[in-house]
Give the backbone structure.
Amino acid sequence: MSKKLCKLVKDDILEDDFKTYVKYVRKPHYVCKKCGRAAADEDMLCKPQKIKEKDKE
């Protein structure tokens, strides 16, 4: 998947393919410093920042 979550949301993935969207955001390890979205894979975000275990508390 080459599109970032920002683009997918603008393309209405939430309406068109909700199950795929949930797969991308389930158990996030990264958060985007630009848009604030979270994802399991850093390639899905514009400016990913790894979420450290101590940051999750």
About this structure: Strands lie at 30-32, 38-39, 48-50. The mean pLDDT is 84.
